Hints:
The complex is a heterodimer of chains A (173) and B (259).
Chain A: H1 12-23, H2 32-45, H3 52-56, H4 58-62, H5 64-68, H6 76-80, H7 87-103, H8 107-128, H9 137-148, H10 155-172
Helix pairs in contact in A: 2-8, 7-8, 8-10, 9-10
Chain B: H1 14-29, H2 33-57, H3 62-78, H4 81-85, H5 92-108, H6 141-167, H7 171-187, H8 194-201, H9 206-229, H10 237-252
Helix pairs in contact in B: 1-2, 2-3, 2-6, 3-5, 6-9, 6-10, 7-9
Amino acid sequence: MNAKKTTFGADPQRMADMLATGTDADSGDLTPDETREELLGRRLAGSLPPTPKQANDLAVFVGEFQELLPLQGRALGEVILDEETELDVLVEIKEYGKTLSTAIDSEADREVGLTIYYAAIAGGILFHDQRITSYSFAVLANALEAFVEKRWMNPKLARHFAKARKACRKKMK
Amino acid sequence: MSKDNDRSMTGAERGAFVMTRWTEISAARTLDPERRRQAVGRIMRRYWKPVYAYLRRKGNDHDKSADLVQGFFIKVIQRDLIQQADSNRGRFRSLLLTALDRYVRDEYAKESTHKRRPAGGVGSLDAFEVPPPLPAMDASPEQAFVYAWASQLLDRVLADVEAQCRQSGQQQHWEVFRQTVIEPTLFGAEIPPMPTLCRELDIGTPKQAAAMNVTVKRRFKRVMRAHVLEFVASEEEVESEIGNLMDILSRTGAGKQVP
């Protein structure tokens, strides 16, 4: 609380009401789409964490991880959509998305993880003309199309997916 | 707001929470005098407000209340009053209050306040924080204790929620929650119109602001449960502890404040 430093002195009934806010927090549930929109926004606003391997391996920490240091302080969404983001970094982001999609149990989290996964793959195609997955361009085009159509999709990411889908279709010809 | 650098981090394992509150007091008994003195100071810093509020409501002036607060915490550790009140654990808040009530009854039977002061003291109460005003005039000592307890709980929960929002880059989320939930609920502030708030905070749409609020409310709930879990014996008791606090606060009602 930056405006009021303590609740001491507040009306007791108001304090009871504030405690009640914590007990009925689920009453304002988001719709499934809103949940995904919110989760995706949170992930994109966050930064790319080091993988356990990076965090634990000192040699990697002082070597490979140093290359990721410029990313520190930058939002993940910004890095994904930056055409100057290096391919290695996109591969890291892809792995991060994969981890998110498999390590968590809610459907919303899983879909958000997959969104990051495919956004990184799309970046590889658009910015480096590289396919950083074993999926064929045909499979990718279909998958990316599905993301473009998600109602909860971040508008910038939707455009990113649409461009990548177009690029995949060109490659298929 | 008091700073508690040594408090358990929200999100720690449930077992760690439960153990921390119950064992720290017992553990302090086994320490050498200097470390015990420090431990008493830490424990006192954490719980002094409810104890002080109770003592003031009992009719003691500030000096006597401050004196009794110090004496109580020394005795809590020296004689392990909490363990004596034990009854197989249960709510820490209730047991602290039981122990306090027992202590006050014993102390009222004595004359000398000097006996309450340990050699070298455990630090002045005033060094922690300026004594706050007490709640409603007609509150009982027990209600004053619960009021201060709940206030301390809310202060810590809100500080943690704010810190978590800032750490995860969600300053907008926190600000929406503060302006539309905290300030109106706790202090009667007017809820700003959502379009105005969105403009001020550079949020795309009111819908997004509403979604931010839901996120922080959930975080608030999660953090509050984690904090309450520190003071009850099991996860099942968290809801009833919060409900009990709400009941007592509602019965305490609004009233004039005592300086």
